[in-house]
Structure prediction request, 195 residues.
Amino acid sequence: MAARPLDVVFDELVQNQGRGAALRLKFVAHKDRTWFLAIVLHSFAKHAEGTKLTDLEQAIVSAFRKNGYTDQEIKAHGKLDRKLPQSLRSEMFSSRFAQLDVKQNYTMAELKRDVPEIIKSAHAIPSATAPEGGVQQAGAEQGGSPSTSAASARFTIKASKFTGRSRRHRRGGLGSGRGGGSRRHDPVAHRLHGG
Prediction:
């Protein structure tokens, strides 16, 4: 399947329609996780403008080139970033990164300065919710407190309940020779569904 044209994706995102509406919803819901996307688009926009890039911006553009992106593709993404309305940028990115524009520089030193806040917001995002509503973090179950250090932070997901059902059993099963999907003649589905 061919990828959708970049301008179509952009228009749907800005107009909050079609697949763009779902994408926008994800960006808005996870705005604390989109910091790197903001920096990448900022770097692409500066490259498209022909503006001098900082160490970080140059490293990003070079990394994308090394991984198969052409200058034309990078500039196309950068031009779309320039057209992104500020109100939408504020919805999609945290305030620090929503304000980036081609007139500003963003360096490796600034990223290092921002990392503690990025880590703090990342740790505030629940990774798994226990049935009682609590978040389970590694170390917490042994009575210890979870580490706040970026290098040693580990989260675990503990499944407390699984209620998945196989779709094929509800539709007659593969190779059952039935179109109606009667569970009565399928011993596996019979056990799965408690019949």
